[in-house]
Amino acid sequence: MEMTAWSQLRSAMNAESTHRPLARATLRRIARFARPHRGRILAYLVLSVATALLAVATPLLAGRVVTGIVSGADPGRVTRLALLIALIALAEAALALTGRRLSASLGEGLILDLRTTVFDHVQRMPVAFFTRTRTGALVSRLNNDVIGAQRAFSDTLSGVAANLVTLVLTLGVMLALSWRVTLLALVLLPLFVIPARRTGRRMARLQREAAEHNAAMGTRMTERFSAPGATLVKLFGDPGRESAAFAERAARVRDIGVRTATAQSVFVTALTLVSSLALALVYGIGGRLALDGTLEAGAVVSLSLLLTRLYAPLTALAGARVEVMGALVSFERVFEVLDLEPLVAEPEQAREVPPGPVSVEFEAVSFAYPAADKVSLASLEEVAGLDTRGGQEVLHGISFRAEPGQTVALVGSSGAGKSTVASLVPRLHDVDAGAVRLGGVDVRELGGSALRATVGMVTQDGHLFHESVRDNLLIADPGASEEELWEALRRARLDRLVADLPDGLDTVVGERGYRLSGGERQRMTLARLLLARQRVVILDEATAHLDNTSEAAVQEALTEALAGRTALVIAHRLSTIRSADLILVVEDGRIAERGTHETLLARGGRYAQLYRTQFAPAETAPVS
Fold it and tell me: Do 11 and 314 meet the contact criterion of CB atoms below 8 Å apart?
């Protein structure tokens, strides 16, 4: 009976947040997810019903044993009844194990389907989605909410079916044994359910408060325990203040835990007392009826045993709607992410980039970053509502052409739009007007695989995963051989460094590659680019973190790597820009000037000004 109390408490705790109407559209979508598992669902329901039938049979047989003992029946009959009870117990155990395996298979299968669907969908989202979304909130959808949705099948669905069958059978048998005792026992049921609702609301508030403090602690730990966060705290933070702030949150969680545990104990004790009173009522009234000869002694025992099996399904079914709604909320939170349409969609009939060297062409391209409500969710950003205003245009009529094998450099002030121009080539965003073409084909007509095989990009931050050197390189070419990996490292001037690492290629580089220096991380990303062998290369400040010695080595590798390839280069280093076939000066989202290094200097315009203020010192600086 104590387990029944805990079950009812858990149901009641979710009641406040899940009183909402059933959404038919949500149910239809759930049915589509469940369709591949319908065979296991049916088998699980059959097993649940069979288990419920056996659960009712045992109290009846126990009553017959008692009646046989009291009436002096044949000892063999009592023995046979006892053996039958044992066989039923074995059958119940076998069905329970089989049902648990089916439940696990069903639940884990659904988790797999939901997680892979959400994961694949999120991968198709534009970069703007990831710049706005809290990573922890997104991961929570893949973990907590998916598991919550899974419970609808592994727990709630079978529970309703089994409890309904158990309730009907138990009530029927109890009424047949003694309708008076049964009705009197049911009188105490409100004393069992009402406290659960009231205590459940209080428990729900405590749970939400604890969740908020735990989330705050988790966020603080995630930020402080990352390599850049820990460095920032060591440079500017106060360890004592950090510890005090964390301890304050942890103390609140502790206090809530004490209050929760106390409320739970009081609740369960009170409900166990109610069930004991109901059991005493059955023994008292049933015993009097047995002494009067209107009820068999075995029937009293059966009624008492059946009573313990009556309250559980009654209270569970009373909270079934709450459980169902809780599962629906989890499904809706998962579907909320799936309903966010990717702004960059795969074409229905994808084209391929023509073979050979590839040209890059921008024709009257205009672009505005999308408004928040187009790429994100308020629940993923922890805001009350998203900004619905349209994005402000940042590129205005950009037109240029990089011939196959040419190098085009983009220069200009910070925030002028250079990186935005570069991001449109691999289709990280879609243009609002005009077109971007690779080899004469609009990038919106190319599939993702064709774009990845054609365009390679090295950004300023040189991001690496918390994996080995080998794994970080194999992202570019999963089928690369050991020799090809070492060749890419040699061309990026990293082979000696990696050879000296403790585990060579299998050395883990740390979160974001923080076990390597900034220059080493950048050369690692260049090695990845060299391994991919794409025909169009974009370098977005790729040499920004390199010293003069490292830059000279990497420039040598880049000269070899860019031979015969079309390159779009954003850089502040003079050595890269001077050798470009075409230089574009980007200001305020427009191309202000274009030409070669010599012609732009001779013109004396914006490029000449940038050269005097930024590039000339780099040209005359001594090499260290």
Answer: no
Q: What is the pLDDT of residues 335-375, one digit of tens each?
A: 888 888 887 888 888 889 988 889 999 999 999 888 766 76
Beta bridge partner(s), residue 436? 362
**Longest pairwise C-alpha distance within the chain:** 121
Residues 6+ apart with CB under 8 A from 325: 14, 18, 19, 20, 22
CA pair distance 212, 222, nearest whole angstrom: 15
For residue 134, give both structure tokens: 């809290």
CA angle at 451 for the pair 447 and 454, rounded to the nearest 5°: 140
pTM above 0.90, yes or no: no
Based on its alpha-carbon atoms, the radius of gyration of the chain, rounded to whole angstroms, reads: 35
| CA distances from residue 280 to 178, 276, 301, 425, 455 in whole angstroms, order as listed | 16, 6, 12, 79, 79
Let me know how many helices (H) and strands (E) the chain has, helices first: 28, 10
Which of these CATH numbers, 1.25.40.10, 3.40.50.300, 3.90.180.10, 1.20.1540.10, describes 360-383+395-465+534-620?
Answer: 3.40.50.300
Q: What average pLDDT does the structure give for the chain?
A: 78
Within 13 Å of residue 530, how many CA atoms lie on the same side as its CB? 26
